[in-house]
UniProtKB/TrEMBL annotation:
InterPro entries: AKR_Detox_Biosynth, NADP_OxRdtase_dom
Domain NADP-dependent oxidoreductase: 1-175
Keywords: Oxidoreductase
Source species of the chain: Verticillium longisporum
Oxidoreductase in keyword set: yes
Domain of life, source organism: Eukaryota
Name recorded for this polypeptide: Oxidoreductase sirO like protein
Segment forming the signal sequence: none
A Pfam family this chain is assigned to: Aldo_ket_red
One of the record's GO molecular function terms: oxidoreductase activity
Gene Ontology annotations for the cellular component aspect, listed alphabetically: cytosol
Keyword Hydrolase attributed: no
Amino acid sequence: MEAIQTLHEQGKFEKFGLSNFTKEQILEWHSYAKSKGRPSAEFPGSYSIAVRGNETALFPTLRELGISVQAYSPIDAGLSVKAPEFIAAAKGSRDPTTMMGRMRQDLYNKPAYMKMPAEFSKLMDNLGLSRSSVAHRWLKYHSALDGSLGDGLLLGAISSEQLEESLLVLEKGPLEP
């Protein structure tokens, strides 16, 4: 933590990202940072329409400490837009022989999550909306994120076209009730 404090004092960064920190680690960092002049922090974390555990596990603590949330993975690493068979096949970004693949398998390869893509797809088809569109718009306009507290949405894309599509979807505003 001393090295982080030194880099902050040198102006190397404005906010420190507490990504993948547990609640206990966040509290430890906050106590230390506050005693040393506290660099600003934010919490970049996986948060989506399907993966909402942090709403109760971390958000209250983050709010209490004044730490903003930067949500990533609005489509749950593809869970919201891929067929269950693709997810179960454990290929590509879900390949368990890679660190990221193991993490995604541990996080998403559960019976309840495996039902979600088919149910989500059926609902979106009935509404005439794309799964990706709903996932992005829900996160921006209907989730526990609060822009007035500095919260935001981190978008990732595998192409400029995908990024442009995500930005256009967000311009559509909140979902209809």
